[in-house]
């Protein structure tokens, strides 16, 4: 059994750790509220842009280079959104393992030939995939220190440009979609090429709405050329905000679990401390009684 000083030191150390995890939980909760506000404000805007772009692409003769369908998929780009900091449970690893599984199942030949490229957002994603020798063409560590729409639009603009010039045949975004504080959904969605048959399909839209013939000013082609890049920018921006909210929720949950585990460990150690203390007291009393008995025999 450990001596009393060692147990006291361990209890003190656990108390200090508990204070840290409590503080981190409170910070994550405050950040989560702000992240949720941004995310909830962006969701309807991004969904409506997608719906309008889809309706325009389906109901007019307008086309755009981002809608081209490649004859063969040779070069693929993944934009993977992780986090800059850890202590958020399986938030990063679960997503990264899911991405690796999809690459192995669907893009094994491209990965083997070196035609699979990655753009990683967040320090953890950049470190993880570089360490495993993936072709990381761009990394953005420290991205979440200052979340900015212009930075995400620049990333998507580069991806669009490389898709249009034929560098990539398909572009995917992988991220954690926020469901609740304790639940995130791993998502990998194809953003390029844009498929007019699937883009912007609203569940609430009935046949009469989809058949409405609109008048476009100046013309449908000009509107589509402006709308599709905006739609793609919003898809990446929304994914970044979803991932940020998911990260704060995951960290809040992880720190809450760590605090509860620390409480359980402290309770067990205090019980052990009291048992050791009682044992020491009992031993001392026994020694005193034995000494007194030995003296009385003389």
Helix content: 55-70%
What would the average pLDDT be, to the nearest integer?
87
Poorly predicted tracts of residues: none
Order of strands in the sheet with the most strands?
3-2-1-4-5
Order of helices and strands: HEHHEHEHEEHH
Distance between the termini: 36 Å
Quickly give the CATH architecture.
3-Layer(aba) Sandwich
Looking at this structure, what is the CATH superfamily? ATP synthase, F1 complex, gamma subunit
User: Tally of extended strands?
Assistant: 5
Radius of gyration: 29 Å
Look at the helices and sheets and give the structural class.
Answer: alpha/beta
Strand content: 5-15%
CATH class: Alpha Beta
The number of helical segments is 7
CATH topology: Pyruvate Kinase, Chain: A, domain 1
Largest sheet: 5 strands, mixed
Which helices and strands occur, and which strands form pairs?
Elements: H1 4-59, E1 76-81, H2 91-106, H3 108-113, E2 116-121, H4 123-131, E3 136-140, H5 149-164, E4 170-180, E5 183-192, H6 207-210, H7 220-296
Parallel strand pairs: 1-2, 1-4, 2-3
Antiparallel strand pairs: 4-5
Would you summarize the structure shown here?
The protein is an alpha/beta fold. The protein has helices at residues 4-59, 91-106, 108-113, 123-131, 149-164, 207-210, 220-296, and strands spanning 76-81, 116-121, 136-140, 170-180, 183-192.
